[in-house]
Design brief:
The complex is a heterodimer of chains A (107) and B (176). Chain A has 3 helices and no strands. Chain A is mostly helical and 107 residues long. The termini of chain A are far apart. The relative contact order of chain A is 0.13. Chain B has 6 helices and no strands. In chain B, α1 runs antiparallel to α2. The N and C termini of chain B lie far apart (64 Å). The chains are: A mainly alpha (107), B mainly alpha (176). At the A-B interface, α1, α2 and α3 of A face α1, α2, α3, α4 and α5 of B.
Amino acid sequence: MMLALSSQLNTYLIIGAFLFACGIYGLLQHRSLIGMLISGELVLSGASVNLMAFNRFLAPDPTVGQIFTLFIMGIAAAEAAIALSIILAVYRNYQSIDAEDLQDLKG
Amino acid sequence: MAQNLLTLEGLAGVVFLAMIAATVGGALVAVNAKRLVRSVTGLALCFTGVAGLYYFLNSPFVALMEMLIYVGAVCVAIVFAVMLAEPRSEDKVGKESGLGALLSIIAAGLVFIGLRKVTITSHWPAAAKPVNHGSLIEVGNSLMTTYSLVFELISVVLLVAIIGALVLAHPGRDKK
């Protein structure tokens, strides 16, 4: 039944796989650095959904997955901050955030 | 299916389907939008749906943190970066065309189909008896006892990230 989907492990795993695949598609497809960062966040989100689903349905200690997901969030926030400031620095030097314009070594 | 729609479980099921729709639709908008601002909006929608999924997974605290950190902080930071580093013309943000797009779709589709096949064909062993309920108090207790080293470590990581972001972005946008 469609309405009982929330109590099945496979639902969450497939959603996680979908988010992961979307992130990979965006990483390959986008040419701007910010678009690639957004796709990377989708990949991390897919991994988090997977871990939370295993935590709910299979883990004997239900706190482990929650803590792991909280740590993923912290790492993702740090990664986004660093990546955004790198993007700003790149934009100052190249006046562009297109990944294909960044062809110079030694700026 | 129509007759149990009005029970509590039926309504919860409808809300769950709406959360799935928000997640999937938001992810599709995030990767397919032409303009970066729309991508960020799709990302916020997707994270809202994921927060709803966390709520259905008995983790309201993680759902709250998802809204607070991802929707509230990461998306807003990305919007600020889009404002500061606006690409000059629309076509510069454009996607790969033709063969590149096709190969991207094939690669992502293979990943999705493979993961889905693994998910469906695997036999997941039944859960052992849970030792606690995974409530917020228990999460806090094990965060401060079992995982205290990791907790301290991630504080250091965040501190380094803040300082690093300040150092990298310090010269200001009008240096040129």
